[in-house]
Specification:
Blueprint: E1 9-17, E2 30-39, E3 45-55, H1 59-68, E4 78-84, H2 90-103, H3 120-133, E5 140-142, E6 148-150
Antiparallel strand pairs: 1-4, 2-3, 2-4, 5-6
């Protein structure tokens, strides 16, 4: 896989055909995205987001399960794999996956396979922020230490 200079992502393979899942190294851990490829008029291609998942130890195993699943088989045609660096914890991988699921939770096409439509820690944080800040009164301000963050309650 090509190497990157990113803090979280070590390497990436994008938009590979479903049948290429056996080419992924067994020890790759990180998260993956399933897409449904649709040809458009002309030479334009669409890769509709279908599902995001994480693999604590073996992305290839997760892709194999999806490829052999009668429920998911016809829903996706391509996939991308995002390998994380070795020092990234399982909790951090889960947080990234949860964030992506949260972002796509109301997308009618993306949610066809995403049973977990939101990420509970993010929901709790949102509720706590609204409780502290007052709903619809959330403002970011420059703090006296030079950072930006939510306005403190008086």
């Amino acid at each position: 896989m090509p190497q990157s200079e990113m803090r979280l992502i070590k390497s990436v393979l994008e938009y590979l055909p479903r049948g290429d899942w056996p080419t992924i190294d067994a020890e790759v851990r990180g998260f993956y995205v399933l897409y449904n490829h649709r040809k458009r008029r002309g030479n334009d291609d669409n890769f509709d987001f279908v599902y995001v998942g994480m693999a604590q130890n073996n992305v290839r195993g997760r892709l194999k399960n999806h490829a052999n699943s009668w429920k998911k088989w016809g829903e996706w045609t391509h996939f991308s794999v995002f390998e994380v660096w070795d020092n990234i914890s399982l909790q951090e991988i889960g947080e990234l996956e949860g964030l992506f699921r949260h972002l796509y939770r109301w997308d009618s096409k993306a949610n066809s396979l995403n049973i977990q439509r939101s990420y509970k820690p993010l929901q709790r944080l949102r509720r706590a922020t609204h409780t502290v800040q007052g709903r619809n009164q959330f403002r970011w301000v420059k703090k006296h230490d030079g950072t930006r963050g939510p306005k403190d309650q008086a």
